[in-house]
């Protein structure tokens, strides 16, 4: 194969950020440690019955892979998704997202296992060794849904999906695999809480450095959008209750998309128009990165490939819309 034929493959496996490579190394080291020293899994995986006093396993469990396949998949996920998200968010916010989603996932899984134990008195809920980075990977997919919902993604060179549907498909496939394997405890809690925890953070709490605004109240990022349209009317009342529990009161106007309120005052960054502008700025930043990657890839040749593992630019987010965005 000629060097020009290898160029797209070389580009795909280059450009990884320093932080994503560091997280990948951490996952690889964690896998090697528990492979060489299996007894260490008792101390670094999440074992709900031992989390008191070993509370550190709420944090460490997310970075420990028990199988080679899951280690490879999650290492590739953090490398490829990291070089999309980190340039848009910045390294500090990217690391903050990973830490918070991982902590939320671990703590929520612990609470759920303890609750199930007291409901059933089944000790199987107390002593499973739960671990893996798949909760954070599920959170990454939610972030992709937020930033570039109409981006077309090709899986296995055959299946094409909009980015906004990928988190729901990931959860659905995980549920099916867990039921077939008969061991839902090892997989589902991290994926479900990783998905919800990342949405909760991005929806209500994330502060964008370029605007110093918080959250994303747009209708396109509502929790009901993770479900098929036929069941969304039934989901909306439930998600409204969850929003009130976790994030304070929302005004009647807020329910129609004008913003969140807490204590009678709008939360910073709750303006839907500003949320839309932030999403468009993120899409433009992605386009600039795609163009820069294409220039580096082509050199003297024409029409090089982008380093991102996606098949096209987000529809409706082209550069021709930039003047309209600035005038809003």
TrEMBL record:
KW Flavoprotein (keyword) present: no
TM region positions: 21-41, 61-82, 94-119, 165-181
Chain intervals for the UniProt region annotation (Disordered): 255-328
Membrane topology label: Multi-pass membrane protein
Compartment(s) of residence: Membrane
GO cellular component, one term: membrane
Basic and acidic residues bias: start-end ranges: 274-290, 318-328
Single biological process term from Gene Ontology: retrograde vesicle-mediated transport, Golgi to endoplasmic reticulum
Domain of life: Eukaryota
Comp. bias (Low complexity): 291-305
Pfam families on file: DUF1751
Assigned keywords, A-Z: Membrane, Transmembrane, Transmembrane helix
Primary residence: membrane
PANTHER family referenced in this protein's UniProt entry, alphabetically: PLACENTAL PROTEIN 6 (PTHR13377), TRANSMEMBRANE PROTEIN 115 (PTHR13377:SF3)
Protein name: Uncharacterized protein
Organism this protein belongs to: Klebsormidium nitens (Green alga)
């Amino acid at each position: 194969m000629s060097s020009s034929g290898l160029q797209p493959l070389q580009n795909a496996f280059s450009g990884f950020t320093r932080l994503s490579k560091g997280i990948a190394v951490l996952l690889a080291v964690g896998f090697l440690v528990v492979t060489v020293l299996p007894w260490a899994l008792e101390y670094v995986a999440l074992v709900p019955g031992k989390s008191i006093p070993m509370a550190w396993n709420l944090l460490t469990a997310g970075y420990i892979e028990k199988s080679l396949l899951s280690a490879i998949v999650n290492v590739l996920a953090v490398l490829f998704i990291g070089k999309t998200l980190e340039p848009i968010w910045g390294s500090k916010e990217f690391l903050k997202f990973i830490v918070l989603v991982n902590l939320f996932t671990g703590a929520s899984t612990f609470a759920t296992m303890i609750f199930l134990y007291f409901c059933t008195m089944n000790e199987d809920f107390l002593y499973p060794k739960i671990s893996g980075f798949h909760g954070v990977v599920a959170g990454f997919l939610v972030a992709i849904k937020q930033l570039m919902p109409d981006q077309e993604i090709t899986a296995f060179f055959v299946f094409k999906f909009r980015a906004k549907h990928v988190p729901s498909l990931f959860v659905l496939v995980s549920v099916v695999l867990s039921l077939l394997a008969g061991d839902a405890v090892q997989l589902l809690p991290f994926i479900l809480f990783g998905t919800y925890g990342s949405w909760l953070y991005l929806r209500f709490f994330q502060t964008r450095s370029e605007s110093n605004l918080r959250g994303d109240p747009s209708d396109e990022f509502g929790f009901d959008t993770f479900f098929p349209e036929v069941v969304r009317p039934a989901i909306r009342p439930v998600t409204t209750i969850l929003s009130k529990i976790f994030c304070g009161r929302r005004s009647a106007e807020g329910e129609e998309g004008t913003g969140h309120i807490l204590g009678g005052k709008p939360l910073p960054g709750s303006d839907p128009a500003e949320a839309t502008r932030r999403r468009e700025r993120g899409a433009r930043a992605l386009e600039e990165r795609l163009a820069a990657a294409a220039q580096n890839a082509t050199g003297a040749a024409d029409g090089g490939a982008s380093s991102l593992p996606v098949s096209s630019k987000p529809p409706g987010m082209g550069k021709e819309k930039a003047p309209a965005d600035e005038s809003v």
